[in-house]
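Quick note —
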Amino acid sequence: MRLAATGLLAAMAGLYVVTGFWVRSSPWLAYLRAFAEAGTVGACADWFAVTALFRRPFGLPIPHTGIIPRNRERIGDALGAFIADNFLTTEVLSARLRQLEIGRWGASWLRQPANAAMVAARLVKLAPELLALSTAEARRRFVTAIATDAIAAAPAAKLASGVLRAAASGERGEALLDTGLDLLARALAGNEELLRAEVAGRTFRWLPRWLDEKIADRILRAFAETLEAMRAIDHPMRAKLLSALHDFAARLETDPELAARAEAIKAQIVSHPLLVARLGELGEAFERRLTPRSDTEAQALAERLAAGLVGLGDWLYGQTEAIEIFNDWARSAVERAIAPRRHDIGRSIASVVAGWDVRSVVDRLELQVGADLQYIRINGTLVGGAVGLIIFALSQWFGLRG
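Predicted structure written out below.
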């Protein structure tokens, strides 16, 4: 486009020169010469204007030229302030985030296999690099501290109450009772001799040995029959046991003594060396999965991770409540992290612009808007020629020019 605009300028100048040789013998050429003359002037003026934006024409220190290089700091300040005040305010960010639906957009994006595969591949590649930033012992302590702190922060009584209520409700409650009955039946079958000895040891000393055994057998048989009978869904004991579980769950939420005992038990569990060791082992096992030893293992890990991400995206896409929660988190995070620091961001933009290399700035801007600026030169050439032709014609018609 620069060549085209410059070529048009040269054509106008050439036309002006050429028509000058025959204008006396062919007066009508005066109109064409006036057009070429005005077009040349317009082309030169617009070339100067366009060039003055980016550099000094011919390197001459003409005032008010090289406008962008000379004012890049002021441009950076204005750009930073404009972005900070018009794009990064709380109101604008909130409205934009509501329109974007970050949660649904993220879920929709993640459920695409190609996107999930890309994320998984990057995570698999990044994980070993992140792990290499710390020692194994430091990571072990970190994982253990995070897990134990999380356990310690959870209210034991309320947590246990919630778990117990969930486990004892509906079909889960029936399954829980059946599992408990199975455990009791196996315990009874595997410890018959011990139970017989316990029963015999608690009867009267003067009773014969055979009678002790008979009593023990009857007790064990009755217990086993009761357990078997309780497998029937309509057995009255099942309802009583489930009711007792719900009552105990309610007590856990309201009884201060039970709450204190639950906290004491939780404290013992958290501080137990076996739990600490197990948490460390789990962390190490997780790390081993994140550090594949071959390309084949890395590919398999990436495929499993991608499948999990697709599943996560599918699940999240259909969870309106979860998406709203995610949207709220995203809005809150952006509003808290960006809006209060918008002026700092604006100053950062200004400093980046001010630090740009002058030549680089000029080249980049010219590449972006250069074609349009060359069209300005072309239009200036043609419009200038047309205006000059009109002025010349009017001058001739009204006798204003000899």
